[in-house]
C-alpha cells in the first residue's frame, strides 16, 4: 500500500476548505475534582439539575431546527435525528471519497466515518489552562488551600478518562488511514474507483482541521513575534495542495516545528521534539502512515505539555493570591449565584438550624454558649455524615466544592472503625486461646499496615457485593495468619482458625452491630475533640497562615491510630473553618446577629412553632 506524501501525480480533488474548530470544551480536562466551574457537582442534599453552562449551550444548538427548501418554496423543519441522517446523505464540499482499491477493513471504514474530527488537544481544550480561567476556577481555588503541590495534569482517570483515551486512539488511527488515502490518491490516476453497485462512500477529512488546530495552539504558546512564521509555515491551503500532489516535505515541516518548540519549551521537552522528527522521518521513508501519525501524536503531546508547564508555573506564582483571596472570592461568587437563583441553599440552612435546635433542646435552660458554639454544631453535623454506617445520599449543598475531600475523609474514618473491629476480633481469638502478645505495639503496627492495605481494596465495593465478600475473606485469612503466628502455630492456617474469624468479621462489617456502634462512638469523641482544638486555632488565622501552619507537621509512625485521627481532624478543621468563614455571614449566622441572639432566636422559633400547632 502506498503511503508516500511526496508522490508527483496530479491530485484529483479540490483542496478541502477551512473547517471551524469544534466549540465544545471539556470542563476540568486537566485534573481537579471534575466539577464544572459555573455549575457545581450535585451529590448534595439538594437534588437539582447541575448541567454546565457549556452543556446547556450545546444542547441549545442541537435543538435549533434545520430547514430544507422544497421546489414549492415550503420550508420543512426536521428533527435533530432527521437532520443528522440528511447530513449523512449529503456530503459537504470538502468530503473525500474512500477508494475501494485501497482495500480498507470494516473497522477502518468505521473510524473514517465516526472518529472525532479534531485532535485531542485543541485551543479550546487548552483554554481552561489560560490565566483568566485559572483565576476564576472555583475548584482550583479550593484545592490550592489543601494541596501544596497542586498542579494540572491530563485527566485520564476513571470512566471519563478511559473514554477520552479511546476517542484519541480512534482519532489517530483514522488519521493514519486518511494519510494513506492521500498517498494513494497522489500515486494513482483514478483513486476514487468506488464500487458501481452504490454511491461513492465519503468521509470528512481531518488533516486540514489538524493543521488549523496546530497553528492555533502554537500561536497561544509562542511570542507574537513568531506568529508570522507560524502562519507562513503552516498555511493550510498550501499544505493540503502539496499533500494532494504528493510533494509535501513533511520532514522539513517537522524539523522546523522541532526548532521552534525547542526555542520556547523547557529543555526536558527537547528529547520529545527529536523523537517527533525521527518518527515522521522514518514514517516518510518507509511509507508507514502509522509511524507518521506517531510523530504527530508526539507533537501534540509536546504542545499539551508546554501549556501545562505554563499553567503550573502560573499556579505557583499566584498560589498565595489564590489562597488569601479564597473567602471574599467565594462569598462574592455564591452571593451572585444565590441572587440569580442558580444555587439553592434552603436545605443547607434547614440542616444547620435543625442541628442548632436539637442541641438547644439538650442544653439546660438558660443556655450559655460561647463564641465557638455555632461552628461546633457544624463540625458535629458533618461528623455524623462521616461516621454513619450507611453512605449518606450526599453532603449539604454548601459543601459542594468540598464533597470529594469529605468522601475521602469518610473513607478513612470508616477504615479506622473497621480496623478497630478487626483488631478486636484478633484479640478476642488470642484471649480465647489464653495467649498474650509479647509486643502489642509492634504487632498492632504490622497488623494495621497489612490489614489496612487490604481494606483499601474494599473502598469502592458496596457492602455485601461478591467482590466485597471476597475481600473480607482475604482480610479474615490475614487475621487468622496473625493469630496463628501470635499463638506460635507453625505451618498452614487451619479452617478451624479461619471459620470463626471469617464469620465474626463478615457479620460485624456488614451490619451496624453493637461493635460498630461502640467504635463509632469512641472515634467520634476523639475526632471532635481533636477537631475542636485545631479549629479554635484556625479561626484566628488567615487562609494562608492555616496552610503554612501545616507545612512542618511532626511525622509520627503510620501504625499509630492517634496519628491518623490527628491528621484527619486537622483536615476536617481546615475545611470547616474555611467553610464557616464563607457561609456563616451568608447563610448560617447573620452578620448583625450575636451568638447569644442566635440562641435566643432559636427558642423563640420553637415557641412560635408550638403555638402554631
UniProtKB/TrEMBL annotation:
Residues 1-21, 35-50 have a biased composition (Basic and acidic residues). InterPro entries: Tcp11 (IPR008862). Pfam families: Tcp11. Residues 1-65 are annotated as: Disordered. One of its GO terms (biological process) is protein kinase A signaling. Signal peptide: none annotated. Belongs to the TCP11 family. This is Camp-mediated signaling protein Sok1. It comes from Aspergillus sclerotioniger CBS 115572.
Amino acid at each position: 500500500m502506498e503511503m508516500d506524501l511526496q508522490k508527483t501525480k496530479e491530485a484529483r480533488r479540490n483542496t478541502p476548505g477551512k473547517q471551524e474548530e469544534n466549540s465544545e470544551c471539556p470542563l476540568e480536562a486537566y485534573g481537579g475534582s471534575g466539577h464544572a466551574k459555573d455549575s457545581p457537582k450535585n451529590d448534595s442534599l439538594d437534588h437539582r439539575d447541575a448541567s454546565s453552562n457549556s452543556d446547556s449551550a450545546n444542547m441549545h444548538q442541537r435543538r435549533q431546527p434545520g430547514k430544507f427548501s422544497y421546489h414549492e418554496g415550503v420550508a420543512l423543519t426536521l428533527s435533530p435525528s432527521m437532520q443528522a441522517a440528511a447530513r449523512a446523505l449529503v456530503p459537504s464540499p470538502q468530503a473525500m471519497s474512500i477508494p475501494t482499491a485501497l482495500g480498507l477493513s470494516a473497522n477502518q471504514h468505521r473510524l473514517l466515518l465516526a472518529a472525532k474530527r479534531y485532535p485531542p488537544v485543541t485551543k479550546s481544550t487548552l483554554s481552561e489552562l489560560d490565566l483568566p480561567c485559572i483565576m476564576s476556577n472555583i475548584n482550583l481555588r479550593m484545592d490550592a488551600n489543601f494541596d501544596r503541590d497542586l498542579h494540572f495534569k491530563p485527566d485520564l482517570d476513571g470512566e471519563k478518562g478511559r473514554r477520552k483515551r479511546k476517542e484519541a486512539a480512534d482519532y489517530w488511527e483514522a488519521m493514519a488511514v486518511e494519510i494513506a488515502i492521500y498517498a494513494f490518491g497522489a500515486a494513482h490516476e483514478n483513486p476514487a474507483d468506488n464500487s458501481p453497485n452504490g454511491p461513492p462512500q465519503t468521509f470528512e477529512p481531518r488533516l486540514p482541521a489538524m493543521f488549523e488546530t496546530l497553528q492555533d495552539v502554537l500561536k497561544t504558546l509562542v511570542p507574537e513575534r513568531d506568529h508570522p512564521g507560524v502562519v507562513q509555515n503552516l498555511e493550510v491551503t498550501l499544505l493540503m495542495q502539496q499533500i494532494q500532489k504528493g510533494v509535501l516535505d513533511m520532514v522539513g515541516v517537522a524539523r522546523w516545528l522541532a526548532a521552534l518548540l525547542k526555542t520556547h519549551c523547557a529543555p526536558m521537552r527537547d528529547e520529545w521534539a527529536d523523537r517527533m522528527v525521527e518518527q515522521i522521518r522514518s514514517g516518510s521513508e518507509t511509507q508507514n502512515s502509522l509511524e507518521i501519525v506517531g510523530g504527530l501524536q508526539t507533537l501534540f503531546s509536546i504542545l499539551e505539555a508546554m501549556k501545562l508547564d505554563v499553567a503550573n508555573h502560573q499556579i505557583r506564582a499566584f498560589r498565595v493570591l489564590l489562597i488569601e483571596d479564597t473567602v471574599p472570592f467565594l462569598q462574592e461568587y455564591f452571593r451572585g449565584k444565590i441572587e440569580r437563583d442558580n444555587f439553592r441553599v434552603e436545605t443547607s440552612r434547614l440542616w444547620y438550624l435543625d442541628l442548632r435546635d436539637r442541641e438547644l433542646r439538650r442544653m439546660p435552660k438558660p443556655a450559655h454558649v460561647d463564641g465557638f458554639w455555632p461552628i461546633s454544631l457544624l463540625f458535629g453535623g458533618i461528623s455524623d455524615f462521616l461516621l454513619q454506617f450507611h453512605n449518606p445520599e450526599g453532603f449539604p449543598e454548601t459543601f459542594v466544592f468540598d464533597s470529594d475531600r469529605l468522601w475521602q475523609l469518610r473513607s478513612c474514618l470508616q477504615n479506622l472503625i473497621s480496623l478497630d473491629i478487626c483488631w478486636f476480633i484478633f484479640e478476642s481469638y488470642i484471649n480465647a486461646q489464653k495467649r498474650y502478645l509479647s509486643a502489642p505495639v509492634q504487632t498492632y503496627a504490622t497488623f494495621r499496615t497489612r490489614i489496612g492495605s487490604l481494606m483499601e481494596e474494599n473502598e469502592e465495593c458496596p457492602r455485601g457485593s461478591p467482590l466485597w465478600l471476597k475481600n473480607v475473606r482475604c482480610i479474615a485469612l490475614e487475621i487468622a495468619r496473625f493469630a496463628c503466628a501470635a499463638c506460635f502455630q507453625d505451618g498452614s492456617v487451619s479452617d478451624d482458625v479461619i471459620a470463626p474469624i471469617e464469620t465474626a468479621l463478615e457479620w460485624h462489617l456488614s451490619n451496624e452491630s453493637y461493635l460498630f456502634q461502640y467504635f463509632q462512638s469512641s472515634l467520634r469523641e476523639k475526632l471532635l475533640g481533636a477537631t475542636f482544638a485545631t479549629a479554635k486555632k484556625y479561626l484566628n488565622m488567615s487562609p494562608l497562615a492555616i496552610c503554612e501552619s501545616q507545612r512542618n507537621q511532626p511525622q509520627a509512625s503510620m501504625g499509630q491510630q492517634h496519628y491518623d485521627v490527628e491528621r484527619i481532624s486537622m483536615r476536617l478543621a481546615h475545611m470547616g473553618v474555611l467553610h464557616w468563614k464563607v457561609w456563616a455571614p451568608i447563610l448560617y449566622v447573620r452578620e448583625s446577629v450575636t451568638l447569644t441572639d442566635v440562641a435566643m432566636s432559636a427558642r423563640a422559633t420553637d415557641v412560635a412553632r408550638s403555638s402554631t400547632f
